[in-house]
Amino acid sequence: MQQDMEIDNGDETIQIDFKAKRVIIHDRYENLHILNDLLLALWFLVGSVMFFYKHWTYLGTWLFVFGSAQMAIGPMIRMAHKLHIRRFERFWKAKIESAMGANVEIKANGSQRVEEKGGSEGSSETEDGQGESTRQMW
C-alpha cells in the first residue's frame, strides 16, 4: 500500500491513490522535525553566547542541558511518523477488506494477494517469486 492500490472483487475494480494522503502525513511530521531543529539551534546558540559572560554561564549551561535533552525528540518524531503511517495503512486495509467481502483480489506495488474469507480471517495467501504459496498474517 505504498503508492496506490487496485482492488478487484470480480464485479468492479477500484483504484485508490494513497500517495496524496501519505504526503500530507509526511509533511506534518517534517514540519514538526524542522521546528524541533530550529529550537535546538536556538538553545545552543543562545547558550553559547551566554558562555562569553561570566554572570550568564550558569543559565547557558542549563540551555545546553535542555537542548541536549531535546535532541531525543527528533527520533521520537520519526518513530511517531512511522507508527502513524503503519496505523494509516492497517486502518484502510481493514476497511477495504470489510467493505469488499469475500474473494477480493488486492494488488499493491506489483504484489498480488487473494483474500479468502473463511478458514482464517485476517490472513492471505501470497505467491512468492518461485511459484510457492505462502500464508501471511496482516
What can you tell me about this protein's structure?
The chain has 138 residues and is of the alpha+beta class. It has one domain. The chain has 3 helices and 6 strands, in the order ββαααββββ. Strands 2-1-3-4-5-6 form a 6-stranded antiparallel beta sheet. Helix 1 (19-50) packs antiparallel against helix 2 (57-70) and helix 1 (19-50) packs antiparallel against helix 3. Mean pLDDT is 75; it is low at 110-138.
Topology:
Layout: E1 4-8, E2 13-17, H1 19-50, H2 57-70, H3 73-100, E3 105-108, E4 111-115, E5 123-127, E6 133-137
Antiparallel strand pairs: 1-2, 1-3, 3-4, 4-5, 5-6
Helix pairs in contact: 1-2, 1-3
Salient structural properties:
single chain, 138 residues, alpha+beta, 6-stranded antiparallel beta sheet, 3 helices, 6 strands
Rg estimate, integer Å: 24 Å
Would you identify the regions where 5 or more consecutive residues have pLDDT less than 50?
A: 110-138
Could you report the average pLDDT, rounded to the nearest whole number?
75
Residues in β-strands, percent: 15-25%
Helices and strands: which structural class? alpha+beta
Quick overview of this protein structure:
By secondary structure, this protein is α+β, with helices and mostly antiparallel strands.
